[in-house]
Amino acid sequence: MTIGNNKLLVLSEYRKNRNLTQLELAEILGIDQSMISFLENGRRRLDPTKVKQVSLLTGIPKHELRPDLFENDTNIGKKNENHTKNS
Fold it and tell me: Are the CB atoms for 9 and 3 separated by under 8 Å?
């Protein structure tokens, strides 16, 4: 996972890999440039209502944008893997 110290590093990596400025990414996502900065620097977390939209526009999995919202989804996948292995 590419989140550390509440910094949304995955978003920064996405932006830099595509040679986008924070302003350009903000325009694509329909949010303010300052929010991009806050997300990348860990000062804010992505609003839960924006997770799906950002995921669809960037291809970044939702659980990487807000892992705290999808912890149970990840655990369910692991339980299913373990069940299949034990069957």
Answer: yes
pTM above 0.85, yes or no: no
Instruction: Please answer whether residues 17 and 59 qualify as being in contact, where contact means their C-beta atoms are separated by less than 8 angstroms.
Output: no
Is the Cβ–Cβ distance between 39 and 58 less than 8 Å?
no
- Each of the 87 residues of the chain gets a pLDDT tens digit; together they read 344 466 899 999 999 999 999 999 999 999 999 999 999 999 999 999 999 999 999 999 999 999 999 887 655 444 444 444 554
Which CATH number does the domain housing residue 44 bear? Answer: 1.10.260.40
Strand partners, 79: none
